[in-house]
Write a structure and sequence with these properties.
The protein is an alpha+beta fold. The chain has a domain of 78 residues: hypothetical protein PF0899 fold (2-Layer Sandwich), CATH 3.30.2320. Strands 2-1-6 form a 3-stranded mixed β-sheet, with helices on one face. A 3-stranded antiparallel β-sheet has the order 4-3-5, with no helix packed on it. Strand 3 and strand 4 form a beta hairpin. Helix 1 crosses helix 2. The structure holds zinc ion (ZN). Zinc ion (ZN) binds next to loops.
Length: 113
Amino acid sequence: MHEMSIAEGILDIALDYAKQNDAKVVHEVGLILGEMAGVEMESLDFSWRLITKDTIAEGAKLTVRKTPLVGRCSKCGKEFHIEHYNFWCPECKDGVLTTISGRELQVEYLEVD
Ligand SMILES: [Zn+2]
């Protein structure tokens, strides 16, 4: 279950941030999650609740902003939302779409006190 190691990574970031800001509580963690990041939100939530227990991030909310899978054509340079794993350019039908977003998972913001 790789969501567990992802949750651990998020917790590391949150605790570091709290320390730097002399915070005693982590209230909320905002995440950017690409639709192709391959993360199950349900198991990430579960892992998060598990590993934040007895830390200052216990009870902190994970707020997720999903980003679509977007690719840029190697021939005409246009950008498209990639659907149904179709990586051929719908415009010139000659190029291949290179992913420019949609696989990311990162912390966008943290709310601490
Ligand atoms: Zn194209």
